[in-house]
Amino acid sequence: MHLRELAWVGLVTSLAYPSNASSQATKDQARLIFTVSGGVVLGKSLWSVPAQPVQFITPADTFALGRRIRSNIAIGFGGTYFPGETFGVSVEGFLVGLGFEDSCRLAFSSGSGDVATVCQSIQGTTKSASAVALWAGPILRAYSQRLISPYVRGKVGLVFSNQSSIRTVGRFPTSQGISELVVYDDDHESRVEPALGLAAGFTAAVAKGYQLRWEVRDNIMGVQRVTAATPQARVVPPHERAFKHLFSMTIGFDVVLERRRGRRY
Fold first, then answer.
1. Domains of the chain from N-terminus onward
2. Which of 66, 75, 203, 243 has a CA that sits 20 to 30 A from residue 213's CA?
């Protein structure tokens, strides 16, 4: 083959395949994303006991008790690494105020005013709590180079809570001041429980290196719940771990760092 023919072959080859080289460079592109998000987590019923005796007499005054997880504001801080276009790994710290709201109804009364006051003090009582979920998991996205990019992700981790979901206390006045009646006790004020998360959402590019994020998530968290009444008050009741589906909706802000072949973040 003559030199002129070789030159023409080289020129045609370079014109025919530039898009393939460009797309391969895009596939080799890695992204590191830092996210700050905020939103709301919806509440859920936790446990109920229809007949709990609260005195040492027979027949005893009896409470119908219940507790639910309150709706709360949530804040998240996380990072995601995409080695390619579709698959990535994310880690996150998710602050959920795992607070509670109690209910009490006097199912049977012996006529004691103090016991009735205890039930009234429990009714509607709210308890705030700080709970943090730390988890990690895979994420899959589509159309990452477009304005809108949908994704799904799953997570597994632990939730740390500083408030007992079992302990229940009422109050009544005495001549010495306010006294407490511990209906249910608990030997652990704080606990560490397993947690899972399933989420779907999308990101929207707002500027170079910045995105807005919208996400709906099922936060599946382990929480201890009362399973049965006790013969009397002031003891630790039968309880078990229950996985509660706490749905949340969050809006986040992303900072996107890219590394192309031959370049650093």
1. 29-259 (2.40.160.20)
2. 243
